[in-house]
Amino acid sequence: GVQDKVCVAVRVRPLNQKEEREGATSVVQTDGPQQLTLLREKESIKYVFDHVFPPDTSQAQVFQDVGRPLLDQAFEGYNCTVFAYGQTGSGKTHTMMNHS
């Protein structure tokens, strides 16, 4: 059966036009479907999540992996929530609305 569970998914947003013009580089590297690395000068740090989506991931893929299971559970009568969290400019709107 369905159990109470928090599923944590991270979607790395692509650099925006301003960042690209300024020559910025990403400080995050995706290392597979569940791991990402925070790139630091002295020591990089690896993190593991339920889902990790690189910048080129389509909206359809994010929905298939994260949204569809929640929707299926909601139709079965379970309560479900999608919570987008992050600082300003971190990609919440990009993930939820796919604004270019």
Q: How does this structure look, described?
A:
The protein has 3 helices and 5 strands, in the order E-H-E-E-E-E-H-H. The longest helix has 17 residues, at 59-75. The protein has helices at residues 17-21, 59-75, 92-97; strands at 9-11, 28-30, 35-38, 45-48, 51-53. 28% of the residues lie in helices and 17% in strands. The chain is α+β, with helices and mostly antiparallel strands. The chain starts with 8 loop residues before the first strand and ends with a helix. Strand 3 and strand 4 (45-48) form a beta hairpin. The model has no long low-confidence stretch (mean pLDDT 87). Strands 2-3-4 form a 3-stranded antiparallel β-sheet, with no helix packed on it. It has a two-stranded parallel sheet with strand order 1-5.
- Element-by-element helix/strand order: EHEEEEHH
Count of β-strands: 5
Approximately how much helix is present in the residues?
Answer: 25-40%
| Low-confidence spans | none
Q: DSSP strand (E) fraction? A: 15-25%
Q: Determine the structural class based on helices, strands and strand pairing.
A: alpha+beta
